[in-house]
């Protein structure tokens, strides 16, 4: 069984791969791609895999945009941090899904369902795409966040955070007083819970607060570089795919 993983969070992709290795199914991982643009390009150059694991939120947009750009005939299991109620359309339209953090028994059940399915996969119709998008409900945005301090945890206000970043599969948050905290969540989980009018994920590994931005400068390869307060030796570069959207976000 040849598998393609579409996931923009390295930690989540690694966790999924580990779970697949523990399953009873023999598989070959073809590759891992992390954006709408790269997924469309991959399908345009390669034979369809036997199965695709696809995250909903990618580095440059929602994965549903892929099906508007190219026909995908491979069976798909979506992975998502959205709650079960919000994604009932997946079941209605016979599209399977796994909730993050993914559990071994849920993965095994999805693989069993795939292996027993005899009907070929069909391209997703545009009206189904609209239904999927309309059924996704934005989670309530949090005002506080639990962080590690010493041997325990403390809660800080989200408004105190200047930026967050991922390093060696660990998520860190930097506050206005230049303190660094460990946040026990992936970048996907963290960003999904934040107010996207105040925070922006400029690339796979960095989320910044609008209030922390002091200067925006042109950068090579059609990107922009940001100067933030309390940078702590961090460089902030907006990915090429997000530059236009980032400028629109700053104008809001």
UniProtKB/TrEMBL annotation:
Protein name, per record: DNA-binding response regulator
Superkingdom of origin organism: Bacteria
Cross-referenced Pfam families: LytTR (PF04397), Response_reg (PF00072)
Response regulatory domain boundaries: 2-115
Organism: Flagellimonas aquimarina
Domain HTH LytTR-type residues, every copy: 145-252
Modified residues (4-aspartylphosphate): 55
Entry keywords, A to Z: DNA-binding, Phosphoprotein
GO molecular function, one term: phosphorelay response regulator activity
């Amino acid at each position: 069984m040849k598998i393609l993983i579409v996931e923009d969070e390295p930690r989540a992709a690694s966790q999924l791969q580990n779970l697949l290795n523990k399953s009873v199914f023999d598989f070959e991982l073809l590759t891992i791609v992390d954006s709408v643009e790269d997924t469309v390009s991959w399908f345009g150059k390669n034979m369809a895999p036997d199965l695709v694991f696809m995250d909903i939120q990618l580095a440059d947009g929602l994965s549903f945009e892929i099906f508007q750009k190219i026909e995908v005939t491979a069976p798909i299991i979506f992975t998502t941090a959205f709650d079960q109620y919000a994604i009932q359309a997946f079941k209605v339209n016979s599209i399977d899904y796994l909730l993050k953090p993914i559990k071994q028994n849920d993965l095994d059940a999805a693989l069993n369902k795939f292996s027993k399915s005899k009907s070929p996969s069909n391209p997703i119709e545009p009206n189904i795409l609209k239904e999927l998008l309309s059924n996704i409900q934005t989670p309530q945005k949090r005002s506080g966040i639990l962080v590690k301090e010493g041997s325990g945890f403390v809660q800080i206000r989200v408004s105190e955070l200047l930026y967050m970043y991922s390093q060696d599969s660990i998520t860190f948050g930097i506050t206005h007083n230049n303190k660094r905290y460990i946040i026990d969540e992936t970048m996907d989980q963290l960003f999904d819970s934040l107010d996207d009018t105040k925070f922006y994920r400029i690339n796979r590994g960095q989320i910044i607060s609008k209030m922390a931005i002091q200067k925006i400068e042109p950068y090579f390869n059609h990107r922009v570089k940001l100067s933030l307060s309390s940078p702590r030796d961090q460089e902030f570069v907006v990915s090429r795919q997000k530059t236009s959207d980032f400028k629109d976000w700053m104008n809001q």
